[in-house]
Design a protein that fits this description.
Helices cover 45% and strands 17% of the residues. It is α/β, with parallel strands linked by helices and 255 residues long. A seven-stranded parallel beta sheet has the order 3-2-1-6-7-8-9, with helices on both faces. Helix 2 links the parallel strand 2 and strand 3.
Length: 255
């Protein structure tokens, strides 16, 4: 049975802009009637805009938004309460798709030796700690689901170093390892780290314009970005084929 054959709960973090927004659009077209799509993000107005757009052409699914984030990370108590309050939309669903897309690049104008503890703490709270907390809340909430799939939006830079992106590379590597461990601890849960390729997002432009490394800046300025819709559809194809080894890192350019 395929992941989209029966009503499912799909949850996307960082859904208010960029690739997260595009993922929601592509996913919503795959969801069977009576499915629930949950949009998590840091901007209330942008989330509501995405919800309104999706609802205009997918009226048969339920769409929820959650935007209550603290300035330096996730408000875990509010997120738990949110899922408890909407339990009636989740209790009869036998499948879960959780996509950890939210993230930031940090300050590419700074080198390793420019970083201080407050900056590192804030970055990890938003990009790693909040992800781990969200993952725990969701997987415990949906513990009884027969089919669970968790996607970590990764990057080539989880595997190779890059000047001016020390926090980004380090955090992406840590996330990949976290999900490898999740895969062996939860053998009934399908886990994938997907690197979607370099796309023209806020992070892409930040590196292109603000990196202190001229070589990296020029590489991004000369780069032809991956089309976001194409990358989102490749991820959907991976999920439908369901042939990846749980815990693997798969890149857009791998197939």
């Amino acid at each position: 049975m395929g992941i989209f054959d029966l009503p499912i709960c799909a949850i996307v973090t960082g859904a208010n802009r960029g690739f997260g927004r595009e993922l929601c659009s592509v996913i919503s077209s795959e969801l069977p009637a009576s499915s629930t799509l949950v949009l998590l993000g840091r901007n209330r107005d942008a989330l509501e805009s995405v919800k309104k757009e999706l609802a205009s052409y997918t009226p048969s699914i339920n769409i929820l938004t959650f935007h209550n984030f603290e300035c330096n990370g996730l408000d875990t108590q509010s997120l738990q309460q949110f899922f408890d309050e909407h339990d009636n939309l989740f209790k009869d669903l036998s499948s879960l798709l959780l996509i950890h897309n939210a993230g930031s690049v940090g300050d590419p104008s700074q080198s390793c030796v420019d970083l201080g503890l407050p900056q590192v703490t804030d970055y990890m709270n938003i990009n790693f700690n909040s992800m781990v907390a969200t993952n725990s809340i969701v997987l415990n909430k949906f513990a009884s689901c027969k089919h669970k799939t968790v996607i970590n939006l990764s990057s080539l830079l989880a595997l190779q170093p890059s000047k001016s992106l020390s926090l980004y590379c380090s955090c992406k590597a840590a996330r990949d390892m976290f999900f490898k461990i999740l895969a062996i601890e939860q053998p009934l849960c399908r886990v994938l780290s997907y690197a979607p390729g370099p796309m023209e997002t806020t992070m892409f432009n930040q590196i292109k314009n603000e990196s202190f490394d001229d070589e990296l800046k020029k590489m991004f300025q000369d780069m032809v970005p991956v089309n976001m819709t194409d990358s989102a559809k490749k991820l959907m194809a991976l999920l439908k084929e369901d042939k990846f080894t749980s815990g693997d890192h798969v890149d857009y350019f791998d197939f």
